[in-house]
Design brief:
- With 210 residues, this protein is mainly alpha-helical.
- The protein has one domain.
- 54% of the residues lie in helices and 4% in strands.
- The protein is built from 7 helices and 2 strands; from the N terminus they run H-H-H-H-H-E-E-H-H.
- It has a two-stranded antiparallel ribbon with strand order 1-2.
- The radius of gyration is 18 Å and the shape is globular.
Protein backbone atom coordinates (compact mmCIF):
# COMPACT_ATOMS: atom_id res chain seq x y z
CA UNK A 1 0.00 0.00 0.00
CA UNK A 2 1.48 3.35 -1.02
CA UNK A 3 -0.05 6.06 1.13
CA UNK A 4 1.42 9.50 0.43
CA UNK A 5 -0.47 11.54 3.02
CA UNK A 6 -0.59 10.65 6.69
CA UNK A 7 -3.70 8.67 7.56
CA UNK A 8 -2.48 7.09 10.76
CA UNK A 9 -2.17 10.17 12.91
CA UNK A 10 -1.16 10.86 16.48
CA UNK A 11 -1.46 7.23 17.55
CA UNK A 12 -2.94 3.93 16.47
CA UNK A 13 -5.33 3.86 19.40
CA UNK A 14 -7.18 6.52 21.30
CA UNK A 15 -6.07 7.76 24.67
CA UNK A 16 -7.54 6.17 27.78
CA UNK A 17 -10.70 7.60 29.32
CA UNK A 18 -9.69 9.40 32.54
CA UNK A 19 -12.77 11.39 33.54
CA UNK A 20 -16.53 10.77 33.64
CA UNK A 21 -18.44 12.10 30.66
CA UNK A 22 -21.44 14.42 30.79
CA UNK A 23 -22.89 12.55 27.82
CA UNK A 24 -22.01 8.85 28.24
CA UNK A 25 -24.32 7.71 25.42
CA UNK A 26 -22.64 10.12 23.03
CA UNK A 27 -19.28 8.87 24.24
CA UNK A 28 -20.23 5.28 23.40
CA UNK A 29 -21.51 6.36 19.99
CA UNK A 30 -18.24 8.13 19.18
CA UNK A 31 -16.19 5.13 20.26
CA UNK A 32 -18.27 2.80 18.09
CA UNK A 33 -17.99 5.08 15.07
CA UNK A 34 -14.24 5.43 15.56
CA UNK A 35 -13.82 1.67 15.67
CA UNK A 36 -15.48 1.43 12.25
CA UNK A 37 -13.42 4.41 11.03
CA UNK A 38 -10.13 2.79 12.02
CA UNK A 39 -10.84 -0.82 11.11
CA UNK A 40 -9.79 -0.69 7.43
CA UNK A 41 -6.55 1.14 8.26
CA UNK A 42 -5.73 -1.36 10.98
CA UNK A 43 -6.22 -4.19 8.49
CA UNK A 44 -3.99 -2.46 5.95
CA UNK A 45 -1.33 -1.79 8.59
CA UNK A 46 -1.32 -5.49 9.48
CA UNK A 47 -1.39 -6.39 5.76
CA UNK A 48 -4.58 -8.36 6.25
CA UNK A 49 -7.25 -8.53 3.53
CA UNK A 50 -10.93 -7.83 3.94
CA UNK A 51 -12.80 -11.09 4.55
CA UNK A 52 -15.39 -10.07 1.94
CA UNK A 53 -12.73 -9.28 -0.66
CA UNK A 54 -13.42 -5.53 -0.70
CA UNK A 55 -10.82 -2.89 -1.41
CA UNK A 56 -10.03 -1.52 2.05
CA UNK A 57 -9.35 2.00 0.83
CA UNK A 58 -12.84 2.02 -0.71
CA UNK A 59 -14.26 0.75 2.57
CA UNK A 60 -12.56 3.67 4.33
CA UNK A 61 -14.18 6.19 2.00
CA UNK A 62 -17.60 4.61 2.45
CA UNK A 63 -17.22 4.73 6.22
CA UNK A 64 -16.13 8.36 6.18
CA UNK A 65 -19.11 9.33 4.04
CA UNK A 66 -21.61 7.46 6.21
CA UNK A 67 -20.25 9.05 9.38
CA UNK A 68 -20.31 12.63 8.10
CA UNK A 69 -24.02 13.37 8.74
CA UNK A 70 -23.66 11.99 12.27
CA UNK A 71 -20.66 14.21 13.00
CA UNK A 72 -22.52 17.27 11.75
CA UNK A 73 -25.53 16.36 13.89
CA UNK A 74 -23.32 16.04 16.96
CA UNK A 75 -21.86 19.52 16.43
CA UNK A 76 -25.32 20.98 15.95
CA UNK A 77 -26.75 19.33 19.06
CA UNK A 78 -23.82 19.41 21.50
CA UNK A 79 -21.28 21.89 20.15
CA UNK A 80 -17.69 20.67 20.33
CA UNK A 81 -17.57 17.38 22.28
CA UNK A 82 -14.53 17.91 24.47
CA UNK A 83 -13.11 16.14 27.50
CA UNK A 84 -15.85 17.27 29.87
CA UNK A 85 -18.64 16.31 27.49
CA UNK A 86 -17.48 12.86 26.36
CA UNK A 87 -14.17 12.09 28.11
CA UNK A 88 -10.66 12.17 26.68
CA UNK A 89 -10.86 8.96 24.68
CA UNK A 90 -14.13 9.84 22.96
CA UNK A 91 -13.06 13.45 22.35
CA UNK A 92 -10.01 12.06 20.59
CA UNK A 93 -12.24 9.75 18.55
CA UNK A 94 -14.44 12.64 17.44
CA UNK A 95 -11.41 14.66 16.37
CA UNK A 96 -10.00 11.64 14.51
CA UNK A 97 -13.12 11.33 12.39
CA UNK A 98 -13.14 15.07 11.68
CA UNK A 99 -9.52 14.72 10.59
CA UNK A 100 -10.70 12.19 8.01
CA UNK A 101 -13.52 14.41 6.71
CA UNK A 102 -11.39 15.79 3.87
CA UNK A 103 -14.38 15.74 1.51
CA UNK A 104 -16.02 18.36 3.76
CA UNK A 105 -13.45 21.16 4.22
CA UNK A 106 -15.99 23.70 5.47
CA UNK A 107 -16.99 21.31 8.23
CA UNK A 108 -13.34 20.81 9.19
CA UNK A 109 -12.89 24.58 9.40
CA UNK A 110 -16.04 24.91 11.49
CA UNK A 111 -14.75 22.32 13.95
CA UNK A 112 -11.34 23.99 14.08
CA UNK A 113 -13.00 27.30 15.03
CA UNK A 114 -15.01 25.57 17.74
CA UNK A 115 -11.98 23.68 18.95
CA UNK A 116 -9.70 26.67 19.63
CA UNK A 117 -11.56 28.03 22.69
CA UNK A 118 -11.85 24.47 24.02
CA UNK A 119 -8.08 24.07 23.75
CA UNK A 120 -7.67 27.29 25.74
CA UNK A 121 -10.06 25.90 28.37
CA UNK A 122 -8.04 22.65 28.43
CA UNK A 123 -11.15 20.87 27.16
CA UNK A 124 -9.46 19.71 23.94
CA UNK A 125 -5.94 18.56 23.08
CA UNK A 126 -3.61 21.18 21.54
CA UNK A 127 -1.80 18.45 19.61
CA UNK A 128 -5.06 17.41 17.97
CA UNK A 129 -5.71 21.06 17.12
CA UNK A 130 -2.28 21.20 15.46
CA UNK A 131 -2.97 18.14 13.32
CA UNK A 132 -6.31 19.52 12.15
CA UNK A 133 -4.72 22.92 11.46
CA UNK A 134 -2.15 21.27 9.21
CA UNK A 135 -4.70 19.00 7.57
CA UNK A 136 -6.84 21.96 6.54
CA UNK A 137 -3.80 23.91 5.36
CA UNK A 138 -2.55 21.03 3.22
CA UNK A 139 -5.96 20.41 1.67
CA UNK A 140 -6.31 24.09 0.75
CA UNK A 141 -2.81 24.50 -0.67
CA UNK A 142 -1.49 26.51 2.30
CA UNK A 143 1.67 25.97 4.33
CA UNK A 144 1.62 23.75 7.41
CA UNK A 145 2.47 25.12 10.83
CA UNK A 146 3.63 21.89 12.48
CA UNK A 147 4.66 19.53 9.66
CA UNK A 148 2.24 16.79 10.67
CA UNK A 149 1.00 15.97 7.15
CA UNK A 150 3.74 14.15 5.27
CA UNK A 151 4.54 12.58 1.94
CA UNK A 152 7.07 9.86 1.22
CA UNK A 153 10.08 9.80 -1.06
CA UNK A 154 13.09 7.52 -1.57
CA UNK A 155 11.19 4.34 -2.35
CA UNK A 156 11.29 2.55 -5.70
CA UNK A 157 8.33 0.44 -6.75
CA UNK A 158 7.44 -1.76 -3.80
CA UNK A 159 10.84 -1.35 -2.14
CA UNK A 160 10.33 0.89 0.90
CA UNK A 161 13.64 0.14 2.63
CA UNK A 162 14.93 3.67 1.99
CA UNK A 163 11.65 5.53 2.39
CA UNK A 164 11.88 9.08 3.75
CA UNK A 165 9.01 11.11 5.23
CA UNK A 166 8.95 14.87 4.61
CA UNK A 167 6.29 17.51 5.32
CA UNK A 168 3.94 18.21 2.44
CA UNK A 169 4.69 21.89 3.08
CA UNK A 170 6.01 23.96 5.95
CA UNK A 171 5.99 27.60 7.00
CA UNK A 172 9.13 28.97 8.68
CA UNK A 173 10.98 25.63 8.99
CA UNK A 174 13.66 27.10 11.28
CA UNK A 175 11.13 27.64 14.06
CA UNK A 176 8.89 24.62 13.57
CA UNK A 177 10.35 22.76 16.55
CA UNK A 178 9.62 25.77 18.77
CA UNK A 179 6.00 25.72 17.64
CA UNK A 180 5.81 21.98 18.19
CA UNK A 181 7.44 22.11 21.61
CA UNK A 182 5.05 24.86 22.73
CA UNK A 183 2.14 22.43 22.51
CA UNK A 184 3.95 19.31 23.69
CA UNK A 185 4.96 17.75 20.36
CA UNK A 186 8.20 15.90 19.71
CA UNK A 187 10.85 17.43 17.39
CA UNK A 188 9.84 17.27 13.76
CA UNK A 189 12.68 15.01 12.60
CA UNK A 190 11.89 12.44 15.27
CA UNK A 191 8.27 12.43 14.10
CA UNK A 192 9.30 12.10 10.45
CA UNK A 193 11.61 9.20 11.25
CA UNK A 194 8.77 7.47 13.09
CA UNK A 195 6.37 7.96 10.18
CA UNK A 196 8.95 6.61 7.72
CA UNK A 197 9.50 3.53 9.88
CA UNK A 198 5.75 2.97 10.16
CA UNK A 199 5.38 3.17 6.39
CA UNK A 200 8.28 0.78 5.94
CA UNK A 201 6.60 -1.74 8.23
CA UNK A 202 3.24 -1.31 6.48
CA UNK A 203 4.84 -2.16 3.14
CA UNK A 204 7.19 -4.89 4.35
CA UNK A 205 6.78 -8.02 2.21
CA UNK A 206 4.89 -10.77 4.01
CA UNK A 207 6.83 -14.04 4.48
CA UNK A 208 5.93 -16.65 1.89
CA UNK A 209 3.87 -19.52 3.26
CA UNK A 210 5.78 -22.79 3.33
Amino acid sequence: MKTLLVILIASLSATAQTMPALYPKLSKTLDSLAYVDQWPMQRMFQQLPDSAGRNLEDVEKINYASHQPLLERIIKQYGYPGFKQVGEKSAYNFWLMVQHADAHPNFQRQVLRLMLPEVKRKNAAPVDYAYLTDRIATNSGQLEEYGTQVKYTGYVGNDFNNVIAVPVSLRDPKNVDKRRAAIGMEPLQKYLDRMAEMTKQMNKPKPQAQ
